Amino acid sequence: MLRPRVKLVLEKDGVEVVDEDLALILELVDARGSILAASREAGIPYSRAWEKIVRAERILGHRLVETRRGGKRGGGARLTSQARQVLAEYKRASRMLGVGPRQPGRHQAHGVFVAYSSDPLLEMALNRAPGVEGACIGSSRSLAMLSLGEADVACIHLYDPNTGLYNKPYLEHYQVEEPLKIGGYLRELVLAYNPRRPVRSVREAIQLVVEGKLSMASRPPGAGTRLYQKILAKQVLGNEPTGWPDKYTKVIGWTHEDTARSIAKGEADITITLRYTADKYKIPYIHLSWEKYECYTTTTHNKRVEELANILNSQWFTTLLQTTPGYKPQQNKQPDK
Predict the structure, then answer these.
(1) What share of the chain is helix, strand, coil (3-state, %, to 5)?
(2) Contact assessment for residue 286 and residue 90, using Cβ atoms and an 8 Å cutoff
(3) Topology of 15-97 in CATH?
(4) pLDDT digit string (tens) for 197-212?
(5) 112-184+292-324 domain in CATH 3.30.379.10?
(6) Per the omega criterion (within 30 degrees of 0), is the bond before 284 cis?
(7) What CA–CA distances, in Å, run from 118 to 133, 272, 294?
(8) What is the value of pTM for the model shown?
(9) Which end of the chain is more exposed for a tag (fewer CB within 10 A), N or C?
(10) Which fold would CATH assign to domain 189-289?
(11) What angle do the packed helices 224-237 and 139-147 form, to 10 degrees?
(12) Where in the chain are the domains?
């Protein structure tokens, strides 16, 4: 017998933000203190739960879920005040319209979950690993998830100017217990610019942005590239401009694809991105550095992530790194900065 069913969504400027799945996830995160536990109880794949949270955060312009060690209920995640307001509004609209809430589904078996910072070649590797889910949530948040046991693998690129090292100082800062690297490589970071607004040097580009003569596309807070953006300004100007980079950012791109596309479309004049994405959109660039992009797990998760580790260290992936401009296998020495 057919029965009618109405679904409620909340929109912002005509764009869907909160549906019944996200409302249920937020409610369960609030109750369980864990995104992993919430996704399992809701019967929603972990990666899909993360994608819904991240997409809503991007549209709304603020965090919905915070991840931190030793949460109120002993878990690793809690709702922000903005998320509570969003959830309250969804429930209010549900009562007003007489729309029943979505019911939790079946318990989902937990596969391998990879939290990662934007990288096209890593996504190719993830597509070859059955039973592996991934969510592009930025380096800082990925490390937080690994530390809290909410992710099996974190793939990151965080540079520490004080030590000249990538990633290791941050593994200590986020208190990741017994970290184990399962793969890593080098990728070329560039400053890409609108060909109609050419620049001769990195210093000139940043100075023109500060003067309001060029616009900039940036990655969101927590992204390794955004951290590098802050370091770079201080290196070339001698000091970090007040409010950098937020005050000077015209476009926020969740991935390198987003920021490169914004330059190609003329929505912004400069951005820091991968050579790979600059080449893809045929936009000119200035070389910045070769950075380390690395994937870490912990000894607790080691056996479960073996298949992904094998792919990242396979001849197929090594050949991909060797033949893709802007990438190369990782060397023993630290790349130049």
Answers:
(1) 40, 20, 35
(2) no
(3) Arc Repressor Mutant, subunit A (1.10.10)
(4) 999 999 999 999 999 9
(5) no
(6) no
(7) 14, 13, 12
(8) 0.83
(9) N
(10) D-Maltodextrin-Binding Protein; domain 2 (3.40.190)
(11) 130
(12) 15-97, 112-184+292-324, 189-289
